[in-house]
């Protein structure tokens, strides 16, 4: 399917979903469902294929594509995140970023999205503050998204005091928040041993 040539509308979005379903890998779905706890339906498509699909969509009208999202499938939301993370216009990115983080319900969607975002480094002041704020959110995956954004983009000497201050404020019994905190602390210790 030539995704970059698609004119995004409801009919073509349905064709796109049918295309995703045609890529189903039952063995991979069985494996992946054991490590990703999600309420979304799993098709079973490996990440390199999802990245290739996102790259093709980025050659089409991205904002038109983003109007027709159904959010039924894990892979559908993963591709959305990969597309949104590559948007170069900061205002457009921010608009979709705010909606996208609310859809994240598992570590894989969170971590892949956070690691893929590039634009946040060009607007560090804004997104570092945003990540600190998100880290303190009571929602398990909004908090994790903030922590993984910090881990992926903002571990720098001049940010350390605010990172430590935020980590000390988080009091949670939620597994994926605690694991993100532990991972972030580990990276901080490797890169800034004495301060950590």
Short description:
The protein is mainly α and 196 residues long. 65% of the residues lie in helices and 0% in strands. Helix 5 runs parallel beside helix 7, helix 9 packs antiparallel against helix 10 (140-153) and helix 10 packs parallel to helix 12.
Description:
The chain is an all-alpha fold and 196 residues long. Helix content is 65%, strand content 0%. The chain has 12 helices and no strands. The protein has helices at 10-22, 26-35, 47-57, 62-65, 74-85, 90-100, 107-116, 119-122, 124-135, 140-153, 160-169, 175-191. Helix 5 (74-85) packs antiparallel against helix 6 and helix 9 (124-135) packs antiparallel against helix 10. The longest helix is centred in the last third of the chain and has 17 residues, at 175-191. The model has no long low-confidence stretch (mean pLDDT 96).
Q: Low-confidence parts, pLDDT < 50 over ≥5 residues?
A: none
Judging from the principal axes of the Cα atoms, what is the shape? globular
User: Strand tally, please?
Assistant: 0
Which assembly state applies to the chains in this document?
single chain
What series of H and E elements makes up the topology?
HHHHHHHHHHHH
| Share of residues in strands | under 5%
Task: Record keyword descriptors for this entry.
mainly alpha, 12 helices, single chain, 196 residues
Topology of this protein?
Blueprint: H1 10-22, H2 26-35, H3 47-57, H4 62-65, H5 74-85, H6 90-100, H7 107-116, H8 119-122, H9 124-135, H10 140-153, H11 160-169, H12 175-191
Helix pairs in contact: 3-5, 5-6, 5-7, 7-10, 9-10, 10-12
